[in-house]
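Async update (no meeting this week)

Hi team, since we skipped the sync, here's where things stand on the single-chain job. The sequence we agreed to prioritize is pasted below, unchanged from the tracker. I ran it this morning and attached the output directly underneath so nobody has to dig for it. Comments welcome in thread, and please keep replies under the output.
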Amino acid sequence: MQKAIQLVIDSGGDAGARSAFPLVTTGALLVSKDGKIMGQGCSDYSKNSVHAAMENAGLEITPLQEWCVTWPSSDKLRNEVSQATLYLTMEPTNKRRGQVLPPITQLIELSGVQRVVIGCQDPVPARATKGAKALHSAGIEVTMGSILADECRELIKDYTERANGKLQRMARTQFNIFQRPLGFLHCSVVDSDNIEAFANHGNAFGKEIDGKRLSFRDFGAYEIAPPPEVIWADSQGDGYDDDMDSEPESLDDLLSLEFDEEDEQERLSGTPMMPWYEQVEAVVATFPHPGNGPLNDDSVTTRLNGLKWLSTHGKTLPPGVERILVLDATDLDDLPLSNDDPNLPRGVDVEQFWKGEGRKPTRVLLRRGRSALAQSAAKVAAEAAAAASRAATAALEAIETGDAETAAKAALEGQQAAAVASELAQKELMRTLELKQKLTSMGTIVETLNGGGPIDVMKHLGRRNGYKSVVWRAGCWGNRGVQSILDGAFQWVSAHLAVDAQGGKFWQLMLAERAVQGACGPESKVKVFAAQEDISLEYCDEPEADGDCTLTVDGKPIRHVRLDCRVALVDSERPRDFVLHKTKPIDRKVIEEDAPWFL
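Output:
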């Protein structure tokens, strides 16, 4: 067991170069009957420690719908494994992770191991002891918590805080109810009347806001837009909340979690991400279809901002956080695959991005992939039918005039037109397959979706990978984001906007929340919830601030705000309980120093 612990320590644990973070990093050791180490492994971003140890012992293991375990032709290894003891620093899970990873307990059972010694149980109360019980039910001798248990718990101390924090509790509840991940939409909220200024100044906000203060505007005239490329990151949070010992079991419990139950939000303090990036399992960016990007700019380079972020700032994500690029299948031909592509944004090493060395492989999700092929086939059929119709008409006219030569010529032309259309479709299909194969050969995973919206992507990630939390960097503008929220793709919005620097934090929170509500959709369909703890204020004229966010209105500074808020769809059928709460007088200090002007 000490050796298994040392494997994790030597790997660097959570901070290791090949860490499984944000998942847990564990160690496994397979020891023969006579005390010889047969195999050892430490979990990383690519595989579990049990998987690594079994392969190290000589077994061939492939995760399909179920685990496929094969041994060398000799029976010697099979016999040795059946008499060996498997030492694990933490209890294995008995749950599968989507379609791609069956339960680890099943792998142990199929390996033939008859004795397992576990250092400590799973720190998540809802999962604790279930893995050990599954092994015991399979007839395996199991010992847990009696050997170096404290050392094993110390090994996963950070993971214990992370796994029992607010974000992961919400994510597990979301997944249990809907079978898809908790969606975080990272975006900006901009004035609908001034989108051009926003677009012209890049990924922040216009230098001037029509000479108007946000507090004087009509709410509702706001839109969702892509987030800034570079933002501030705070490092607040006090870790595990001891008051929340149980998992929220229902949607009501999920929505009743208080915002002041903050996790340890950031260990990547100072990086250009919102606080949740390092705790989710994947970060998604898009390559928008022409017409869905910035105003009056459909250039390929501009539409590649999502890829640019993933390949530059995305490199600082933990190696276990997957980077996913989503695009329409019909736009695959515009995607740059080499560094000499003329459309590639400056400073982007796209070849390194596609290779994804030293981390989880990059993934490309092709939306409407199957329907795109169907559309191509339908287009060919329509062109062939039109050509045949023209040929038939010409042949009929020729027959009526007795011109057999003209009739034959018309029929031949129709046949040739159909052949040309078929050849074009075949070339288009072959070009798509060629691009897919080239991406795959570089190490990129390419998958195809039937649907086209973020909700379809979220369902795919939940079903395929069992992902429970995903950040989506907004790539499109306006109503597409609203529709995604109404479809249920996102349960959390982290929005960047600018508010009047006067009036105190309470007033600024009210303004920010109303602007985000206006951008996310009508209150009759969606509700935005925020609290004072969730507003991150920065003066954009401070020396360390990003120059992109320098804002003034009438010569006065504007605060750059990141507002983290929950969004919930309104269910008119849901029963409601109304409770009257007693109020108390407001403290004079609050009135004089913190309250908005009208108090």
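Quick observations from my side:
The chain has a mean pLDDT of 79.
The longest helix spans residues 404-441.
Reply here if anything looks off.
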